[in-house]
Give the backbone structure.
Amino acid sequence: MIYKLLGNRTYLGQLRHKDQWYPAEHPALITPAQWEDMHAILATNARVRGSHTRSSTPFLLKGIVFGHDGRALTPWHSTKKATGKRYRYYLPMRDIKEHAGASGLPRLPAAELESAVLDQLRGIVRSPDLLGNVLPLAIALDPTLDEAKVTVAMTRLDAI
């Protein structure tokens, strides 16, 4: 419906009769330059237009976190008008597609969810069992490595 609305030439002060558009008596709401600019934007791919917005808001777990029903959690943010502060969330796709609360999951604050995942990842990467499995593979890839270098690299996850 939005694309139909944005394609309505009545905003240019024109009326249609059959397949022809004619100047109307009502004044134009937008200029022809604004019309052309808007249609140039709409002519670009929606994914390309959206990538600028998506790339300006960092979400660490984008595309890799799912709800209990197997559906993806999608990044979402809102900005408080008065202060400009941005609040980041992960929302269940079911809530977006159907209605709020359809999934039974709350909005998950991005900072808390990302922090919990990083804490779990730190624990896994720093475990001695993983070091025993990774060490031979790392040495096979780079013979200059030794156990000390690999251990230090795995404990410095925060720097990465």
User: Anything to note?
Assistant: The CA atoms of residues 118 and 158 lie 9 Å apart. The first helix runs from residue 2 to 6.
